[in-house]
Design a protein that fits this description.
This protein is an all-alpha fold. The chain has a domain of 55 residues. 49% of the residues lie in helices and 0% in strands. The chain is built from three helices and no strands.
Length: 84
């Protein structure tokens, strides 16, 4: 899924049916593929609108993540306090 999203974001003109077939091959339904495509395209669109209008990050937004990573960001370490 991430390979698909990255390709759609970085080189959208190179997308081919085989990219969709690869998602289906690992179990994504047609609805899943649509949702992945739609979410990826939407974020690319919104970011381009913001960039095109010169939108900057709000003053309250911290320039660097606390403790070296943002909350919920994959770090390879187990999250604290999430025991079942």
């Amino acid at each position: 899924m991430l390979t698909y999203a990255l390709k759609l974001t970085c080189t959208p003109g190179e997308m081919v049916e085989a990219d969709v077939d690869a998602l289906r091959a690992v179990g994504f339904s047609d609805r899943d593929v649509h949702d992945i495509c739609e979410a990826t395209a939407y974020y690319a669109y919104v970011n381009r609108i913001a960039d095109g209008l010169g939108v900057t990050v709000e003053d309250w937004y911290p320039p660097d993540p606390p403790d070296g990573h943002w909350p919920g960001e994959a770090t390879g370490e187990p999250e604290q306090g999430n025991d079942p």
